[in-house]
Specification:
Blueprint: H1 2-5, H2 13-19, E1 24-28, H3 35-42, E2 53-55, H4 62-66, E3 76-80, H5 88-99, E4 104-108, H6 111-117, E5 127-131, H7 137-141, H8 147-156, H9 160-165, H10 168-190, H11 196-205, H12 216-223, H13 227-239, E6 243-246, E7 262-265, H14 274-297, E8 301-307, E9 313-320, E10 323-330, H15 339-347, E11 352-357, E12 363-365, E13 368-372, H16 373-379
Parallel strand pairs: 1-4, 1-5, 2-3, 3-4, 10-11, 11-13
Antiparallel strand pairs: 6-7, 8-9, 9-10, 12-13
Helix pairs in contact: 12-13
Length: 383
């Protein structure tokens, strides 16, 4: 499998190429998720030495960019990490307004690109934004996928380097190096945080809290830090694509919880426990689906969960423009649907309920489709 993965075309390639015909494209996503590789594939380039690949970190590139000097004869230019320049928006706006009729621009970056693009509107109307996610099952192998394909994703996560290697040793080393880069480099670039060591403790505490409503108060007590400080740190870690939270869904006929969101990690392989890791994998797949539909089709997509004050819960609900499309419950085994699904079916407007698992059985029980996760991904056309 490791050899085959290297030649998989990323799921966003066609959409990005199409959008480049009329606007700039901003490509965001986690560090090491494959943004540069996707950009180079659009240039039909084997490595970053292609003249149309302009990396702000390259000291030979930076002076030319600030002077507005671009390589001639290139139909597409990739501006990588240009958001490290304090006045990058004005720079990109000037280049696009001057050259946009003849040259397409692809701007790539991670946390700061997404964070800073929200801070001003000087580029409004000039770009489309896409979020690149880690590899998912359909993107990895297409269909039909096998149980061993799911096991590989469960074990190594969806980030290309450890997944391609297929080595536990490589995965362990990559995990440690990634944490160091995110906490000690990306975080300091994005925000001014003095207690870096405490933020690292917070990052290490998150995997044990995956899939449960996250209490910021409990975290603040554990770390001995003010509630507002922990809330700010969590927001920064979300901007750095370390974790994400999904809020509860309120409904008029249930006593829904309204405050605490559930926590998940972008790298689900960090999650201990087979059941929790599987739930995190499903959460990432559904978030990828929501972001893909939102970025390519323009619908307002949301990922939520249902939980009431009597602790009945269904893991996920996908909404489009505020209307529930379907709900998903995760079980590592091939169990029959729980009572909570029937309860929420009778009291909400959700028409379709699925219960996905890691086994083989595919059947319908009391109106709920119980099916393998890989079948669910294939039939719903997950990216």
């Amino acid at each position: 499998m490791a050899t085959r993965l290297r030649f998989v075309q990323r799921y966003l390639a066609a959409a990005v190429e199409d959008d480049l015909r009329d606007k700039m494209v901003f490509l965001g996503g986690p560090r090491q998720v494959g943004k540069t590789t996707l950009a180079l594939s659009l240039l039909d380039a084997e490595d970053s030495r292609h003249p149309a690949y302009l990396n702000w970190d390259d000291p030979l590139v930076r002076p030319d960019l600030t002077r507005g000097k671009l390589p001639p004869g290139q139909a597409l230019l990739v501006l990588d990490e240009v958001h490290k320049f304090p006045r990058w928006r004005n720079l990109v706006k000037g280049l696009y307004d001057r050259e946009g009729g003849n040259v397409s621009f692809l701007v790539t970056g991670s946390a700061r690109l997404d964070h800073y693009r929200k801070g001003g509107d000087s580029l409004q109307g000039r770009y489309h934004y896409h979020r690149l996610h880690p590899f998912s099952l359909n993107e990895l192998v297409g269909t039909p996928a096998t149980a061993s394909d799911v096991d590989a994703l469960m074990q190594f996560g969806g980030f290309p380097e450890p997944l391609f290697a297929g080595s536990t040793r490589t995965w362990r080393r990559w995990q440690r190096e990634r944490l160091a880069r995110v906490v000690y480099e990306d975080l300091r670039d994005l925000e001014s945080v003095r207690d870096i060591g405490l933020v690292e403790l917070l990052v290490n505490a998150l995997p044990e809290r995956v899939g449960a409503p996250l209490s910021v108060r409990n975290l603040s007590e554990d770390l001995g830090v003010a509630h507002a400080t922990v809330a700010r740190w969590l927001a920064i870690l979300e901007a750095l694509y370390v974790c994400f939270r999904i809020p509860p869904l309120g409904a008029p006929r249930i006593r829904a919880v309204k405050k605490e969101a559930k926590l998940y990690l972008w790298d689900w392989s960090e999650t201990p426990g087979r059941g929790e890791r599987f739930e995190n994998l499903v959460a990432c797949q559904l978030l990828k689906y929501c972001h893909h539909v939102e970025d390519t089709e323009g619908y307002g997509m949301e990922l939520r969960f249902i939980r009431d004050t009597d602790r009945r819960e269904v893991d996920f609900v996908v909404l489009q423009d505020g209307v529930p499309l379907f709900a998903v419950e995760c079980k590592s085994g091939e169990k029959s649907p729980g009572r909570a699904i029937d309860y929420f079916r009778r009291r909400t407007a959700i028409a379709d309920f699925y219960q996905v698992h890691l086994g083989e059985r595919d059947y319908v029980s009391e109106g709920t489709r119980v099916l393998p996760f890989r079948t669910f991904c294939a039939e719903l056309g997950m990216p």
